[in-house]
Amino acid sequence: MQSFPPPQQALPTTAQSARMPLATSAPFLQGLMLCFLALVCAGLQFSGVVNIDPFLAIGLGCLLAFFINTRRLFIPTAIFLPLGIVNLLANAGAINGNHSVAYYFIALALGLLAIAFVVRRGLGWAPPGAMAPGVLIFLFGASLLAAAENSALGDMLHSVWAPVGFLGGLGLFYLARSAFGGGRP
Asked: Using 50, 70 and 90 to split pLDDT, how confident is the model at 10?
């Protein structure tokens, strides 16, 4: 007669089945993508061949990483991408200096409207009551104010070192949280 193992031994426990392999988890891959994009930005800064707007680079980097795991990085994408587009247009001379502040407000409004739309639709890309939009806008304004007072900080902020620090720091943070099992998926 054939004996069958007890059901609890035949099936993996919930703790075993809930944990995905680290190398294939979306947060880990997202962290790797952000670190890779930070290295690309560092390479662009060292080469001096391409001069990309730092806020556009942050926005595009967050957008690319957002496609890997849609539960993260929608808010910085919605904030930084429109600001980077306005910076790109201002640097190209397409936006008059007298109207540039209005365009920045429009860019911020579009980003905040995108976040509000996503929250209202319940897509899960941005949680209700998220503090990140306000924090990002405050840090953006504070960094611009500090850059106006300190020329070295201004040079760093308006170079490609800003996305290297932002994308690289965020990527390392996501890698560490994924490796040690913390945070949401």
From this structure: very low
State the number of CA atoms in the 13 A half-sphere of 69 facing the CB.
Answer: 19
Confidence tier at 106 by pLDDT (50, 70, 90): very high
DSSP conformation class of 6: -
How far apart CA 22 and CA 71 sit, in angstroms, is 17
Mean pLDDT of 111-116: 92
Instruction: Give the total residue count for the chain.
Output: 185
Strand positions, DSSP E, 77-151:
none
Tens-digit pLDDT profile for residues 70-79: 888 899 999 9
Contacts 24+ apart (CB under 8 A), 91-96: 91/53
Tokens 């942050």 -> residue: 58
Q: Which amino acid is at 173?
A: F
Q: What is the CA radius of gyration of the chain?
A: 21
80 neighbors 112 (Cβ within 8 angstroms)? no
For residue 180, the tally of other CB atoms under 10 A from its CB is: 8
